[in-house]
Design goal:
alpha/beta, 10 helices, single chain, Enoyl-CoA hydratase, catalytic activity, ClpP/crotonase-like_dom_sf, 3-stranded mixed β-sheet, Enoyl-CoA_hydra/iso, 2-enoyl-CoA Hydratase, Chain A, domain 1, 9 strands
């Protein structure tokens, strides 16, 4: 089964995460296929808007931790840094800067690395059952690699979800300005499609320039530099885990899962 589905029609490209049996947990192969789909949509001159959605109950449970790491004793911080630079930080920044409007449609759980799929999108439509969380502080890490928390939520709400690990509801995310619209689960697809069609009727050049203007305004305020510097802070968490037992990320995983089940 293909992990990523792609379709383009009437100026709208739809990219679909297709690992519903694993809550769309992200393997490295899935991320590479996802990047290929984003690249395809960016290069297609007939595509004016790109929609990212997910099959199944949940948008994404984050990284597939069974997929990511070599065996004990084979991991180095250099290996981790290289992998996460390319597949996490650089991929997310690349998707953020695609010169076309992008929309994420989110339902169910959007955990940790799931945020690195929807945050780079220009707009987010959420089902009422959507929950957004970054519980990696449980593992001794200060947040996911694409650290957009402060920009997406503001500093106090960002600290709250990081310090507690609790999920934000769709309506809380909308109130914080992270989500554009909240709709009943059955209306997520139609509402996202209607928004995409409305945007697709606008001139391509104007859309590109409007996106560039907003993104560059954020970059002038420090967005890009902040993400680069916080990424290096993130790596100190891996270094600490390596110094403890040689199992970065997996350290504290059982406790994190336990807390998620209780939340």
């Amino acid at each position: 089964m293909e992990q990523i589905l792609y379709d383009a029609e009437d100026g709208i490209a739809t990219i679909t995460l297709n690992r519903p049996e694993a809550a769309n947990a992200q393997t490295m192969a899935l991320l590479d296929d996802l990047d290929a789909a984003w690249t395809r949509a960016a290069r297609d001159e007939a595509v004016k808007v790109v929609v990212l959605r997910a099959n199944g109950r949940h948008f994404s449970a984050g990284h597939d931790l069974k997929d990511r790491w070599p065996g004990p004793g084979e991991i180095t911080l250099e290996w981790i840094y290289d992998v996460e630079t390319r597949r996490y930080l650089e991929y997310s920044l690349k998707w953020r800067n695609i010169p076309k409007p992008t929309i994420a449609a989110v339902q169910g759980k959007c955990i940790a690395a799931g945020l690195m799929l929807c945050w780079p999108c220009d707009l987010i439509v959420a089902a009422e059952n959507a929950e957004f969380s970054d519980p990696v502080v449980h593992m001794g890490i200060g947040g996911v690699e694409y650290h957009g928390h402060t920009w997406e939520l503001g500093p106090r709400k960002a600290k709250e979800i990081l310090f507690t690990g609790r999920p934000l509801t769709a309506h809380e995310a909308e109130q914080a300005g992270m989500v554009n619209r909240v709709v009943p689960p059955a209306e997520l697809g139609p509402a996202t499609d209607e928004l995409a069609r409305r945007i697709a009727r606008m001139p391509s050049f104007g859309l590109r320039q409007a996106k560039r203007a907003v993104n560059q305004t954020l970059d002038v305020q420090g967005f890009y530099a902040a993400l680069q510097s916080v990424f290096d802070i993130h790596q100190t968490g891996h270094g600490n885990a390596l110094s403890v037992d040689g199992r970065p990320i997996l350290t504290g995983l059982d406790e994190m899962k336990s807390r998620l089940r209780r939340s």
